[in-house]
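Predict the 3D structure for this chain.
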Amino acid sequence: MTHHRIIILGAGTAGLSAWKQATDLTDDVLMIDPGPLGTTCARVGCMPSKALVQLALDAEAGHSLYRKNLLSGSPGQIDGAAAMAEVRRLRDHFVAGPIAATRKMGERFINAAARFTGPDSIEADGRTLSADAFIVAAGTKPFVPPGWPDLGDRLVSSDDVFELTDIPARIGVIGSGAIGCEIGQSFAMLGADVHMFGHGEQLAGLVDEDINREMHSALSEHLTLHTNMNVEPVATDIGVEIVSASQRIAVDLVVAATGRRAVVDAMGLENLGVPLNERGLPDIDPVSLRAGSAPVWFAGDISNIRPLMHEAADEGRLAAWHALHPDAECLGRRTPMGIVFTRPQVAWAGLRKNELPDDALTGEANFGRQGRATLMGYTHGLMKVFADAHGVLIGAEMACAGAEHMAHQLAWLIQQRVHVVDALQLPFYHPVLEEGLRTALHGIRRQLPERERRPDLPLCRDFDQSMPGT
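Done. Predicted structure below.
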């Protein structure tokens, strides 16, 4: 039996991040992954989906000019085959980096499946290996409800959708979460007739009802939304019918965006010596990421604590640190944040509406009337920013133009525990989308006691006199 200081199972974002952290501290690190390599994000997730989104936004911009009679002649038609080929070309570009990283590992990388035979041992590639610590970063795979695979090639998962060689004329998207909304709206902008079905009212992971209604209106401009609906796709001689209690809708292809499940099949987690939950996973400490008393740490999507790429990268580093320093002081996490790249974008940072204290303060901005957003052609948009009773920023949620950037700005302010008055002292240009953020911040300021409502300019004694222009 060969022994190592640490063995990492999974060469995705979390695993590669764990590798970098661990190899800073020891050379005795082994990586194992059965493939396909390239990380979920680069291969089937954030990068190919954003390539599809960008093509759709480019197409929509051209269509908008035609609708406004600003272009003469006949509008061009989207070449679906060429569009999907371009998505794959960009995808392959991003996949190349993570694959190259595993090749550089040389003999310290094993391209094989691994199975635990005990808390401190595994079998892989016909070998028995042991380690002081293991990091499980095996990721997730799309969940397709039982019976749906009977649709054959008329059904694709949210991973397989990027392998399409053309864009079907009629598409049914099952699932109204972040993935379903991005894929559904993109295909609609690229010319498909899209019907999207959601089990509830919630779209793109939104919590706030007002913002969700705004997003419902925005999406409905491109596709047909069916919310609060249980459906079942049924194969026909010429395609598929999506059947509910009240209607049957014919489509050529069904895209299952119905969530993801941890990759735990045949991993032997039952041999870790700790109880497993209904997901087939041990209970994972959300701070250290350790599985009970076992010398095993879980990182990335498989833990389902914060299943986002940037969080997976942080969890890889965190798991590696604790695996090599089991008694170390806990490491903090960054302010949570999420972004959905629809039009308008959806984003949140910090606490969300369902997590706020009872005395929280809320400021709003309507981006349907915001100057810069109007110039950019947006007719929908709403932002809400949250502060505690004293005016310290604690959260935000939005569906508006530029949400990807303003969510970052707010996350930075929230993590630094900035007071709304101090935030308003920062510079805002005109005309920019951030003026809408300022409107929301002023909405909070007006709810503070009068003594807190001084002009939103820095006091002379607080201002750095060395700044240019002073």
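The radius of gyration is 25 Å.
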